[in-house]
């Protein structure tokens, strides 16, 4: 594993420094969700006023404050790892400790799910409870870590790694997003390795061969301005990370690493950004087909997806519909129309991707 990454972009990439307003989510009550609501559409000068107001009304999280969390109770509606009727000690998990714990949970869960004989994945909340019981023999410590991880996921929700885990944990996001991203990255590495083997297995790829892999793997068209821009952005990020010029061969395998917190370097960051952008474009295309309908039925969404992604398979569209309407494939015939904004939010948090070419 790579011990650390060089995130300092040199003079190959210029940028204008701006305040990192997203960091405020760590300190505002309600985490990134509430901070997004508070900051949406506001300029920097207006955000200063928002922060001052939060301080005045006590809306900031006091990271050295409350020594105990209020118990959430023992009802069935409470996640199993939070069921408790007594105050719980606040361990004040740091962002690094949270990232390390999340990384180990993902790694352990992947192994355990692979051992299941029915081909399904265990619910993340249930797995977390089992995971904590395995690691800590005392029930009180198990509860403490459950509450503290829950709190940390809210405070650091703006972090890509922690944020996705937190959304999966609370049932907001589909766990398959995590696994699909890993498979995509592994597939890209496999394609580059295959081309390297065909060229003599020297361990590097020339710039044109590297860009060829990007174009073929992501189906990028040289005639499309957005595709060309995405290709060049990923290529430049790779050069920055490897600290080489555009003409030098790329030690491509070094780009497919992460540090002990699960963070990747500039190249894979750009790959993830590209995938996220493509997903957003896909969902926006679906939204345009839904037009201004305040509510959306199963048939409405099926028609919209079929229009924007005509190559999609029947099984995959059923999978998307089941996720969007929070039901099973068999239950689709019985669900009522839902508010369009809620449905689009479900799609954003689902493992949704365009199967055909746009």
If you compute it from the alpha carbons, what radius of gyration comes out, rounded to the nearest whole angstrom?
Answer: 23 Å
How do the strands line up in the largest sheet?
A: 1-2
Number of helices: 13
Mean pLDDT across all amino acids: 88
User: How many beta-strand runs?
Assistant: 4
Shape: globular
Beta fraction: under 5%
Structural class: mainly alpha
> What profile does the largest beta sheet have?
2 strands, antiparallel
Helix content: 40-55%
Work out the count of structural domains. Answer: 4
Indicate the multimeric state.
single chain
* Low-confidence runs: 1-17
From the N-terminal CA to the C-terminal CA, the straight-line distance is 37 Å
Helices and strands, in N-to-C order?
HHEEHHHHHHHHEHHEH
How would you describe this protein?
The chain is mainly alpha-helical and 358 residues long. The chain folds into four domains: 21-57, no CATH class; 80-173, no CATH class; 176-280; 291-357. The protein is 53% helix and 2% strand. It has 13 helices and four strands. It has helices spanning 31-39, 44-57, 95-114, 124-135, 139-155, 160-169, 176-198, 207-217, 225-242, 266-290, 298-308, 314-324, 340-348, and strands at residues 68-69, 88-89, 295-296, 338-339. The protein has a two-stranded antiparallel ribbon with strand order 1-2. Strands 3-4 form a two-stranded antiparallel ribbon. α7 packs across α8, α10 packs across α11 and α10 packs antiparallel against α13. It is globular and about 65 Å long. Mean pLDDT is 88; it is low at 1-17.
